[in-house]
Structure formats: C-alpha cells, structure tokens
Amino acid sequence: MFRKLRDKTRPLRRRLKLGVATYRARNKRSSLICPVIGVTGSSGKSTTTNLLRHVLAGQGKVEALCIENTLTPLARFMAALPLRSDFVLAELGASQSGDILSMSTLLRPTVAVITKVGIEHYSSFRSREGVAEEKGSLVSVLPENGLAILNADDPYVAAMSERTKARAVTFGWSEGADYQVLETRDGFPKQLEVTIRCKQGVFEVATPFLDSTFWLATAAAFACAVELGMEPARVAELIGSAQPIWNRLQTLKIPKGPIFLLDTVKAPAESIEGALAALGKASAKRKTVILGTISDYKGDSRKPYRAAYRLSRELADRVIFVGDHSHRSGATEEDIERGIFASFVEPRAATEYIRQTAQPDELILIKGSATQHLERIAFDWGQNVQCWDPRCGKTIDCRTCGLVEFPRHLHKRKRWSSRWTARYRSWLGGTQ
User: Fold this and answer.
1) DSSP letters along 320-345, please?
2) CA-to-CA distance for 216 and 181, rounded, in angstroms?
3) In terms of domains, do 163 and 266 share one?
4) Is 228 contained in some domain?
5) CATH of the domain at 392
6) Is the pLDDT assigned to residue 89 strictly greater than 60?
7) Cβ distance 86 to 132 under 8 Å?
8) Which of 354, 280, 286 lies closest to 312, judged by CA?
9) pLDDT tens digits for range 225-253
10) For residues 254, 255, 256 and 259, what is the CA-based torsion angle, rounded to 10 degrees?
11) Which of 64, 130, 63, 65 is nearest to 94 (CA)?
12) Summary count for the chain: helices (H), strands (E)
C-alpha cells in the first residue's frame, strides 16, 4: 500500500520538492527559535559563512552548512538540526533560476547576508541583472523583524533593500556605510589587516587571509556578528583566530621547494584579475602562474584567455596554461622559446614540468575550476598522486575526496571498503 502511494505521488512530490528530508526540514524549521542566517553572493559567500561560523561559536552553539550550497544538502542539514542551537547558518548557491528562492523558502532566514553580484553561471542568468534578481530572493523572504546585511559598494546588492521590509544594514568602502572599510594592508607573506568604522568606533581587524580581496568577507562577517549582539572588539579578535578555507587563495609551502598559492575552487573571468593582483603584490624571487579553464564570460572565447595571459605576463616570470585552451593565449613564439609560456593538456604533464623547473621558494599561483582539480599539481610534492584522470566528474576537491593516492578506477572500491570498515568498527564498539 505504501509503495503504491509513494509511486503515485512521486511526480507531485518532485514538483513541490517534498522529499523526505525536505519534509523533515520544514518541521524542524518550525521548531527553531534562534537566529537563522542565510549567506549568498557571486563570490565570498563560503569564506563569509566560514568566518561567521567561527565568530558566532564564541557566542554560543552554531550549526552551519558551508560549501555544500544546494537544495539537497540544505534539506538534509536542516532535517538533522538539533532543537537547541544558538545560531543556524547556511550558505546558499545558485546554478539556475529559482534555486535561491527554493532554498530560502525552506530555510526561512531571519538574517540575510549578500556579498556581491557578478557574472555567475552565465549560461543560466546571462547578466548581472539576472544574477541580482536570483540572489535577491533571499532578502525577499525575510520577516519584518529580520535583518539584511548588504554590500553598499555593489549597486545591485544595495538596491535589494527595496525588496524587503526587514531592517537593512550596509558594509563596504562607501561613505555612509554602517560598517565602513577605511583601509586594508596586505602583501604576501603578511596577512590582511582591515580597518572598519562603525557606530561603536574604529576597529583594527587582523585576518587569516593573504589578499585584500578578502575585505569583503571580513566586513560582512564583522557586520553580521556585531548586529547579532557581539562586541566589536571580540568579533575582531575571533576573526584573527579563524582558519581560512584551504583552497581559496591559501598557501602550501613545500620544504626545500616552491610555495603554492592555491585558488582552485572556480575561475570565472572576472575573478582572474584579483588572483593575479595578489600574486603581483607578493614578495618572491620568482613567480609563476598556472591557469586552468576560465568560465562565466560572454563573447569571443579568446578574449578572457588573452587578457589573462597579458596580465600574467606583466606580473609573473612565466605562465603555464593547463587544458585545451593554450591556443587562445596569444603567446608569441619568442615567449615560448624563452620559457615564458608553456602549455599542457593534462595536469600530470604540467606537474612533471614544474618538478623539473621549479626553484626553492618560488611562488606559484594555481588558478582553476573545481572540475579540473589542479590542486593535484601541488599535492604531488608531498603525496604520491595516482589519480590523474582529467575528467573524473567530481565537483568536490581532491582533499575532500581523500583518494588522490589511488588510481581513478579504484575509487569506487576504496570508498565501499572504507564505508563498511567504518560500519564494522561502529558495530564492534557497540558490542563491547
């Protein structure tokens, strides 16, 4: 009887997104009385969420969902929430129209944080206006007594205050921002320091980040935490003790070898300049850029690659393209002959080249999308990387996967083995 009912109602449940986890999540949400915070934006949302998780943990118990920012992980996360929490925090991402609204309706946030609007998933949204319409769905579901934390420097984000009756608080460099950024100081190997002025005074915020682009996440997290009742000085202290997300412009130092600057989460065209600027400001005897596939651009496909190569050529000693787009660089024969430009279709070949040519303490920026897994180039210096499949299909990074030391065809077997080993150990523990 149950099976027949399940089969007959499946089309309706899928259309209304009424899976078991979603049903439980909605029931659990009705029982929550703590602040529920949703974070979205074209960039900076994962870092903002990660910072907020750390900062708010200094005030109480925090349940957070970071990086896994789609509807299914959100439903599972909410279904498993404990009834007693001081803060619930979730990152929301979008790949097509309606995603943010679906997740916002399920999350029902009391606080919304919007970082910025950019050309994200260009094939779905086509313009910044389309992205703004999608991201703004988060503030549109806020209750009247809710709170919107908005980027004052981004006109698309600032305009979202008109889409909600909730109180709006702004952050950014703009005059009149409630949390105004006055100054940033950075430059590898020094960490970023941000000066923020608010109604409580002026505060110096030391961060765990290396580049000034992270002022955005720092100011957003600072503003949100203070508005939720924390002392600004305490928030600044906690931000300084946070651990950054490892593959978002963070360093990996190889003993007696190069220093890798890893930025391998995504590579939209508008993010390339910021990553290269971080390399340009860094102090190093020799600098190298390794660039993978560029995404989210419109028009001629050669344009973003040629622009990236020209800028890389100015800021670095050599440039390496990885993928099937080397012909788009516009590199001259002279650059190739002098070793200024090199290209490889697969990461393994690039790794072998880097091993042969890298110098001690050389700073190597790796910028690419998650599906290319260019982090393997750096991992191979400390691990015996055996998984070199250029199209493994996984969107999680190699560190999260944990199977980089096994060939791709063994991953399924290893995952099955580790799952049953964990269950067996759990069973042994329960029988003692």
Assistant:
1) EEESS-GGGS---HHHHHTTSEEEES
2) 9
3) no
4) no
5) 3.90.190.20
6) yes
7) no
8) 280
9) 999 999 999 999 999 999 998 888 989 99
10) 30
11) 130
12) 18, 15
- Give pTM, 2 decimals: 0.87
Residue 394's pLDDT band (cuts 50, 70, 90): confident
Query: Which tokens is 89 given?
Result: 């925090």
Helix, strand, or coil (residue 356): helix
Give the span between the Cα atoms of 267 and 264, in whole angstroms.
8
**Alpha carbons within 13 A on the beta-carbon side of 425:** 6
Interval 178-199: pLDDT, tens: 999 999 998 788 899 999 999 9
**375 and 262 together in one domain:** yes
Determine the Cα–Cα distance for residues 185 and 195; give it in Å rounded to an integer.
9
Q: Tell me how far CA of residue 394 lies from CA of 9, 263, 351, 400, in angstroms.
A: 31, 17, 20, 11
Give Cβ neighbours of residue 338 (< 8 Å, ≥ 6 apart). none
Please give the Cα distance from 317 to 337 (Å, whole number). 14
Could you list the residue range(s) of the whole structural domain that residue 27 is in?
Answer: 2-172
CB atoms within 10 A of CB 396: 12
Residues 43 and 162 in one domain: yes
Confidence of residue 84 (pLDDT cuts 50, 70, 90): confident
CATH number at residue 92: 3.40.1190.10
Neighbours of 185 (CB within 10 A): 13
Higher per-residue confidence, 211 vs 51: 51
Number of domains in the chain: 2
Closest by alpha carbon to 406, among 431, 379, 425, 424? 379
**Among 350, 186, 349, 371, which Cα is nearest to 279's?**
186
Residues in the chain: 432
418/432 Cα distance (integer angstroms): 21
Q: How far apart are CA 71 and CA 96, in angstroms?
A: 12
